[in-house]
Records
---
Amino acid sequence: MQMHIAVIPGDGIGPEITQAAKMVLDKIASVFGHEIAYTEVCAGGAAIDRFGDPLPAEELKKCQSADSVLLGAVGGPKWDSAPRRPEDALLALRKALGLYANLRPALLTPCLAQASPLKQELVQNGLDILVVRELTGGIYFGKRGKDAVSAFDVEQYSDFEIERIARRAFLSARGRKGCVVSVDKANVLESSKLWRSIVSRVQQEEFPDVALSHMYVDNAAMQIATNPSQFDVIVTTNMFGDILSDLTSVITGSIGLLPSASLGDSSPGMYEPIHGSAPDIAGENKANPIATILSCAMMLKLDFGLASEAEAIERAVNGVLEDGWRTFDIKDNDKPYIGTAEMGRLIADCIK
Ligand code: NAD
Ligand code: IPM
Ligand code: MN
């Protein structure tokens, strides 16, 4: 197969982790007989420095004409007080590509149980939670403004936006344990009351075979930390999903492990780790590339329909972790650490 992938290295650790991920994709291409053409896209802080714009139209076009998009991360303290921020590029990409569904699977393999900050009895049998985060609506994209003494951001959802993300969550649940927990703040927010009623209606009318329950977001955070194995699929709003997925990631060992797929109703999708640009360790060959590498596995499966290739990556990652290899962020007893490039190479070498 011919694959055309737009790669946005971005800022901070972005260039290092996308480099490692390309090494793995190249190995997949050679073992399975595919051809990959990469187009490098400049976005985020790098594009502010080069063009004065976090996402110039030409760079966006490169993404729109690719089959799929791989993103490292954007942002950093250098641009914190810039009039336009690197993060704007990410939000603009999600909106322009219509990527309303963000799948963030948090999978803890038993060999990483020691790396979880939770008590061993909570994680020793592994964890498998899928956060389905709404990605192009809510407070991130509502009306906003400020004056001399105040500022506001409006959380607004339409029934259409809620219906389509609910469908994604129920469809995902059908291929898993068949249980969805919808997370909201319906005891306070109007938008959450609508969220709850639409999610319930979609379940009753279209997915009676899937179990649905509702949870307030504050309780959900507590439940994830104290009884994570009760969860299968969590569906929630843009901001609640952002916050809860950092939590589900860290209980599975490290934020450096958790991939994501951002999907619309057509290609290209965008694939990125859920973590940020980690400015504190940028340029030191320390960052964990596994979240980005697993994002490539999601890309191969979801944008290209290459399930065996995706499984080959997942097997390679598991094999390397089971053999005891760790990057420094995975706090696992006395295991020695290796760097970003070495981790990428080991995983690529495991694909045969
Ligand atoms: P962060 O995720 O970048 O870092 C949080 C902590 O996790 C840091 O200590 C960092 O070193 C560590 N970490 C993150 N990824 C790691 C990896 N792969 N390997 C090892 N350690 C890792 O979050 P932050 O510090 O809040 O944000 C830094 C910048 O990144 C900000 O500008 C933020 O807006 C941006 N950001 C971008 C994205 C994205 O591009 N998708 C996502 C989140 C944050
Ligand atoms: C993420 C990030 C982004 C978000 C930021 C950088 C805009 O935190 O992808 O999780 O909040 O969506
Ligand atoms: Mn986030």
---
Amino acid sequence: MSDNSLRLVWVYPDLLSTYGDQGNALVVERRARQRGLDVTRIDVRSDQPVPTSGDIYLIGGGEDRPQRLAAERLRRDSGLARAAGNGAIIFSVCAGYQILGHEFINDLDQRQPGLGLLDVVSTRGEGERCVGDVLGDIDPPLGLPQLTGFENHQGITHLGPTARPFARTRLGKGNGTGDGTEGAYNDTVFGTYMHGPVLARNPQIADLLLRLALDVNALPPTDDRWYEALRSERITAAQQPA
Ligand code: GLN
């Protein structure tokens, strides 16, 4: 971060942007502008280099084949890994989350290396695909309200010792390992299975990313009535019997 400017990088919208994940970029951008920041949003297609000078990087979910291509290109490019090494904030969803881990199973049934930015390994779940609304309690040190999101994945993700669970599920599968965890994070790198888009359902997570980027403990308040209406609609819907 320099001065009042924020560089927001949306990684590979051409490969990784399912279930409204592009909304995450819109939400971060809007909430940053509402706080008076001068936002430069950089959408990086998969045939372009990932800049290393971003403050916040967003990476979304995707189908199995685009996920394989995205992981190959991100490893070859190395920009995202170098940005992480510089302390950039990275927020990833589903396929993006799996790519940030050590490895995942790709569409060719092969173990494919990820970027190793999160201490997680993803395998393919043997059971039913994890699909539906999720409610969870975000890791208490992060100080955020209830998590609401929508999951749709076959992969399941195991956390290693240096990854903290991002949340504990009250409803839904999350990481799918049966231990009630959902997502993972370390200092500045976050992964979640939540679509929705998750930052529209949980604007406080977008603000967490901004606080980390700005290195501040609090941000000026915003009028969040629209978000609150969406949150309560989805939380109520999730609690209805199927
Ligand atoms: N292909 C991955 C899986 O099914 C990720 C899916 C997604 O991003 N929605 O686990």
---
Amino acid sequence: MANSKYEYVKSFEVEDRLLPCTWVVVRIDGRSFHRFADVHGFEKPNDINALNLMNECAKAVMEDLTDIVFAYGVSDEYSFVIQKASNLYKRRSSKLVSVIVSLFAASYVFNWHTHFPDKKLQYPPAFDGRAVCYPDDSILRDYLSWRQVDCHINNQYNTCLWSLIKAGKSKDCANSELKGTRADFKNEMLFTQFGINYNELPQLFRKGSYIYRKKVQNSTANGTQISRKSSFVVTIDHGDIIGDTFWKEHPYILGAEE
Ligand code: DGT
Ligand code: MG
Ligand code: MG
Ligand code: MG
Ligand code: MG
């Protein structure tokens, strides 16, 4: 049925197609997770179960939306990188963001009980989301580095803060003790006062998590013939993504020739 008299209302819709041929990053972030973490008694500063749940949700999003080539997560946030050439939802920002955010939130509720078998979900969590275009690989790498540096700075600060609080200091007192201090001071404080070697804390806490489609070679023997095929396995890891090493080992993620 074409053209009812009501069709004109479509003209009120705004165009929100993201720039073509650019990396699209959709970042989602837990809404008021400060409160959510308190209500659900998350371990401070890092709750392994909560982080694993975030990772499982991000993996579910990546497995569903194959145009996502990489994801990086820390705390209550996750960034999803959609390949430059993608035409998913005609690159409409509102569609991409709403599908990713709702799939993530639904997965969070769906998978809650496997990570917190003894804790009842007290209320439905929500996530916000936004999409940003980055025009080239180097700026995309800088975006991801920005998030991983943020992870490090926050984790180092929070590790010190909660060590002081667990040792009996008030939150205000612990905050003022740390105010304006440098990284080496914080590492020294953790080591001398609390016997914590910062660099030996789990990579999950210090570096966050990334998910990518790892290329694996499968060899199958058929008589004397050996045929090799490669496939991609969605993989979670917690290493450094600021330096070149990871990207040189997996050049296919950003689409460069091997
Ligand atoms: P927003 O994002 O503006 O709605 O507000 P929040 O409260 O979500 O603030 P945000 O996203 O800047 O900070 C994340 C909060 O989530 C932070 O206050 C502490 C909480 N959080 C995230 N991961 C953990 C965790 O593993 N353990 C604990 N205890 N809290 C966590
Ligand atoms: Mg926020
Ligand atoms: Mg948040
Ligand atoms: Mg956050
Ligand atoms: Mg529809």
---
Amino acid sequence: MSMEEKTLLITAAGQGMGRASAIALAQAGANVIATDRDRDLLAALPDIDGRLQAKVLDVTDPDAVLAMAAESLDLDGLFNCAGMVHNGTILDLDDAAWDASLNLNVTSMVRMIRAFLPGMLNRAKQTGSVSILNMASMASSVKGFPSRTAYGATKAAVIGLTKAVAADFVGQGVRCNALCPGTIDTPSLRGRIAEAADPVQAEKDFVARQPMMRLGTVDDMVPMIRYLLSDESRFVTGQALLVDGGVTI
Ligand code: NAD
């Protein structure tokens, strides 16, 4: 099935990798529902021949998730991109910070998949194949990083969730994979650099952990995202795909 026939929904499409993939997938011909909690960011999305539809969705709002699933067409693809970084070791992590990371990084994906999967199963009966993509990270069960306790633990849970969903629905035409990027130059990374005590050193440190000696770009991520949401990846499921510029060589 071609991209032109697909309807895809992306969370956190207001900026960063979600935005870049929403634009690229609409340019590839898909009908894309670009969602974010930030109305202003959505308003700045370009028009791509009417194929990029922006809708406000805070993925931590269970009622809003259910309402969007009820009003949406049955999806061919769902990209759960929303997530956050808590900076700190376990000694810096109080219950409120842990709950916030778990809620956005994991529970929101559980709710999104649970809400949209029945429609996706209907669609899979017609087309044979639908795809769920969950945003994880190289900082997860794959590799530990300093000051990333809540982040690493919750992104590891995303990989576990991905494999569980893939195992349960592999016989019904549903594929489910996780993307594990390296350090990517996005607005939130720029925010983490700006908030550091020494921003110049902080940027150098982020670059130094990438063996190619540069940050990744959103355009480095888009081809893998497009692949995983297209039928080209029809024999790929339950995988955590690393696009990390060689960090985990
Ligand atoms: P970003 O962090 O710059 O932007 C995040 C977007 O998420 C914003 O538009 C924001 O409005 C939206 N958002 C935040 N909370 C939301 C909510 N509750 N509901 C809906 N939207 C919400 O973008 P990014 O850096 O590309 O990160 C996107 C994803 O990629 C995250 O899950 C992040 O953990 C993951 N990731 C990022 C990097 C990196 O280095 N940037 C690396 C690996 C994984």
